[in-house]
Design a protein that fits this description.
single chain, alpha+beta, Thrombin, subunit H, eight-stranded mixed sheet, globular
């Protein structure tokens, strides 16, 4: 489910993923979207020449209204009849093939996850909104090329699409370093937010604060998302088919998978310099104490919520899906540690400007 891009490929591909292990959100060239071997320009050029003559891996469907803060970042697919006809001519192993004949429009539109934290704010991963690609390999504008869906756990329900007013990205984030993978989206003023809240369709999630209790050893956590559902081994090419050769699909219904909080040392050993103070390590452990294969977030889950249950049953947001190796490949995954960014979140909310994408530094201690 996580929109998680394999670090061995390209961390910041904005591609969709499933709760397999957020990951990342797919790129959107004219006849291609998501991580692939062929580049946007290559695939667009081939399409033009022809014209001229993200359930969670190993997860389950989330209980209705169990995640009323769940957000989706999406786009509007622009595939023409010519695009679809051309895509049908491509071989299944062609890196430019999108399988348009097998995937629904809501799957093609899905990019990333997020969490509603109240007062028009959504928290997500920086790589979901930073320098997003557009069609034809051109730079995109997150303010106009993306929208946010709230108030539903099913992607076929369309009455909850909201426009983006402003974006704040942590200035420490870069596609090369991958750390500080956190951003805030402010939605445009819309009376439906209050209506959805009153109807019980929407509720902000509580943020874990720096002063909150620390994690228990192997504490149970839960990650949710609409990312790709097929397992992908660590060394498999990031593409639109899973390790078994099946087309990767995004579920209509929100998926969830149970994970465990893991010691930092496990992810430090796996990811080295790409794991730092603002990150959190999680995976599903088997009876033998090893990371269990087949349960993970995946492409399309990026930016989505990792939560834990507090005393009294209330869930709090502890992590944001960021990255990892493969999907359900038996490797721990990396999440942005929300409690590390309490001061940054407050600063970003003060700094955000309508109609702009701003980069906000970490406040001084």
């Amino acid at each position: 489910m996580r929109s998680q891009l394999a670090w061995t490929v390209s961390w910041a591909l904005t591609a969709s993923s499933a709760l397999s292990g957020c990951g990342k959100e797919p790129a959107e060239p004219s006849v291609q979207e998501g991580p692939q071997a062929g580049t946007a320009v290559d695939c667009e050029a081939r399409r033009a020449a022809a014209d001229s003559g993200g359930r969670i891996v190993g997860g389950e469907t989330a209980r209705p209204r169990s995640a009323p803060w769940q957000a989706e970042i999406l786009s509007s697919p622009r595939y023409t009849a010519e695009d679809r006809a051309y895509d049908a001519t491509l071989a299944n192993d062609d890196p430019c093939k999108i399988f348009l004949d097998r995937r629904q429009d809501y799957e093609l539109a899905h990019k990333c996850g997020g969490s509603y934290i109240g007062d028009r704010w959504v928290i997500t991963a920086a790589h979901c909104v930073d320098n997003i690609p557009s069609f034809g390999g051109k730079p995109g504008n997150v303010l106009t090329d993306r929208t946010v869906r709230l108030g539903t756990q099913n992607l076929t329900i369309r009455d909850g699409i909201f426009a983006i007013d402003a974006v704040a990205i942590h200035s420490g984030y870069s596609k090369a370093a991958k750390l500080d993978d956190i951003a805030l989206i402010r939605l445009k003023t819309d009376p439906r937010l209050a209506q959805f809240t009153a109807a019980g369709r929407l509720a902000p999630v509580r943020l874990m604060a720096a002063a909150d209790r620390d994690f228990d050893q192997l504490e149970p956590l839960r990650v949710t998302g609409w990312g790709w559902m097929g397992r992908r081994n660590e060394r498999d090419t990031v593409g639109r088919r899973d390790s078994g050769g099946r087309v990767q699909r995004n579920p209509a219904d929100l998926q969830q998978v149970a994970l465990n909080y893991l010691p930092d040392a496990m992810c430090e050993a796996e990811y080295g310099e790409f794991y730092g103070p603002g990150t959190l390590c999680a995976a599903s452990l088997g009876p033998d104490g090893r990371v269990e294969a087949g349960k993970d977030s995946c492409q399309g889950d990026s930016g989505g919520p990792l939560t834990r249950q507090e005393d009294g049953g209330v869930r709090s947001l502890v992590g944001v899906v960021s990255g990892g190796k493969g999907c359900g490949a038996g490797k721990p995954a990396v999440y942005t540690r929300v409690s590390r960014y309490s001061k940054w979140i407050a600063a970003a909310q003060r700094t955000a400007r309508s109609g702009q994408v701003v980069r906000v530094p970490e406040p001084a201690s």
